[in-house]
UniProtKB/TrEMBL annotation, chains A, B:
Protein name: Aminotransferase
Gene3D superfamilies named in the record: Type I PLP-dependent aspartate aminotransferase-like (Major domain) (3.40.640.10)
Annotated source species: Haloplanus salinus
Cofactor section: pyridoxal 5'-phosphate
CDD domains recorded: AAT_like (cd00609)
Length: 365, 365
């Protein structure tokens, strides 16, 4: 199994070892506060009776599944609470492949590197389909690429790393392609709270037996370490997913589920709006600086990354390391995300994003 | 994938719906207090800075790995912190199968039902080898069964459901069999704190490139819901296991890891002794009552189950349900654990174990 995380760690380690101040724009860890109710949930749990320390139901606390179901407008029995979206995507891909309807998984290029890694681990053949020049999904190219051997098409909106947000027509078209090829459309929507465009549409908007939606609270509540995610399966696929979840993990961590449940119930819209506004301002300041630096970039409509390239400065590991040493900014080489070796990705989850932008504007590329 | 947990749930649901008081001896959830330091760890975490809510290292908090490494006498780099022993066993089986050295996994009969379920999910062929009449491992039968197609031999000591504890000679012989067949010996030691015999030996006692040890804090700290376990791999297998762990789960839950770390550091031997003593007393009282009832059983040297059979009362689901209705005691049908359809398993993780024993002694089988 080849997988690019060593490169990810490599850049972080290189930045940490650098002989100067470096602004870390590598990792995707939110830097803002989790909801106060989440902390309250953990405090409450710490004092609970011993039986609260034992296995929750394998597919998650019933109340949490119901809370999620009500928000997503689906039956709670279609939901499996997972160890983050990481496990949810793993279960979704496995569900697609267990159908014996081909072993190819279509992904976008650029692509979040976990997807091809997971696909290969499950014995599938990941195939990258380039996005449009503006970063939007190329629906026609996807339709062209899909065929009898396509088990699944995985999309991610708002997108990491492009920041593209797929609208209702796009999502409906993708489900149509999946249905036409007896494939599953897997829609990873972990950044759904960070849509700056207002155009985001969930794949749950279409009632289809060929769509699986994955999500987590890692990004929306700034709690990547709590590991609470979920997958919404079509009714006929949920039982097999539940079995695999049980055989791999038994169940997810209960303190995390209790804390997320309380946070879901008690956190108002203003919490989510505040993080979205914070990110929108960072995006604006950062892209203004990129304009000043003469960089090309995909303007993000959502999520919290900026995918960019600088004239005469391909996004190789060597150049990324030079940028650490010379500009004090650490980012990810573009070929981590597919074939985009001219590009780099900046994560805007640092209060120093604007300062980083100024450093880039001052840097002589 | 067929898997017996639906039966497990079925019995629990049947017991819960019964029109009388029922003592639940089905599930393996400890009923005693977790360490106080574990609660303190959760409280401390609830007040931590936002960055403590983000991803821990994929293979677990460094301090936790080092704490475990020091206790087990191994290098921390051989340890992957997992989502409970469930994931640890999944990673261990996958590591054995990825070696392309056969697709058979030898298990004992009776067997913990997750093992054959996991093996089949990974595409392996589970093969059950009967234990000796007293429940002890039949090393000669294992040696006979192992061959070129054996990828792994999985043992569990102290054993669920037999209560057998494997001594140093047995463990060394099993590692020898694994080495002779280029297989991996997978040793699941989750009940290691509940050895009443003093004979328990870990597979880590033998320095072998063919042994993987799995464990968790679920049973020793009475926290099955926190999902913190680990696997100790030979150095040449750890990287692939880390990759699979990352691709399936990204990482485990951080609040749970922080709490376990604090509990490991601050909990004295008296905590573990108290739970062991509690269980020993329950085993004695329960087996005395089984003697009075004329039942046959395997006397447990460890863990917290009693595997028993009653003359003329095979452990079918129908009989288990009759026992719920007529005696007010819920247990697990024996064929859940392999081919032992004459038997039933009682879990002694209820303060009412002695009362249950009296009900059984009074029951007309």
């Amino acid at each position: 199994m080849d997988y690019d995380t060593p490169l990810f760690f490599h850049v972080m380690q290189y930045a940490a070892a650098a002989d100067r101040d470096v602004i870390d724009m590598v990792s995707g860890n939110p830097d803002w506060e989790p909801p106060e109710a989440l902390r309250d949930g953990l405090r409450e749990y710490a004092d609970a009776d011993p039986d609260a320390f034992q296995y929750p139901p394998s597919d998650g606390l019933r109340e949490l599944r119901e809370e999620v179901a009500a928000r997503r407008g689906v039956d709670a029995d279609r939901i499996v609470i997972t160890n983050g979206a990481g496990e949810a995507n793993y279960l979704a891909m496995a569900a697609a492949l267990e159908r014996d309807a081909g072993d190819e998984i279509l992904l976008t290029d650029p692509v979040y590197p976990y997807y091809p890694g997971k696909a290969r681990m499950l014995g599938a053949d990941p195939r990258l389909v380039p996005v449009a020049d503006d970063g939007d999904l190329d629906v026609a190219a996807m339709r062209e690429a899909a065929g009898p051997n396509t088990a699944a098409i995985l999309i991610n909106s708002p997108n990491n790393p492009t920041g593209a947000v797929y609208d209702a027509d796009t999502v409906a078209a993708m489900i149509d392609i999946a249905e036409a090829n007896d494939a599953l459309l897997l829609s990873d929507e972990v950044y759904d709270h960070y849509d700056f465009s207002g155009r985001f549409e969930s794949a749950l908007a279409v009632d289809s037996a060929h769509a699986v939606v994955t999500n987590s609270f890692s990004k929306s509540m700034a709690i990547t370490g709590l590991r609470v995610g979920y997958a919404v399966f079509p009714p006929h696929l949920v039982e097999a997913a539940r079995t695999r979840h049980m055989l791999v993990n038994v169940t997810g961590a209960r303190p995390s589920q209790v804390a997320v449940l309380r946070a879901l119930r008690e956190t108002g819209a203003e919490y989510y709006e505040a993080s979205r506004d914070l990110l929108r301002k960072r995006v604006d300041a950062f892209t203004d600086a990129l304009d000043a630096a003469g960089a090309e970039y995909l303007h993000p409509d959502g999520a919290f990354y900026v995918f960019a390239r600088f004239e005469g400065f391909p996004g190789t590991l060597e150049n990324v390391e030079r940028l650490v040493d010379e500009a004090g900014v650490a980012c990810m080489p573009g070929d981590t995300f597919g074939t985009y070796d001219e590009w780099v990705r900046f994560a805007l989850v640092t209060p120093r994003a604007e300062e980083a932008a100024e450093r880039l504007a001052d840097h002589d590329f």
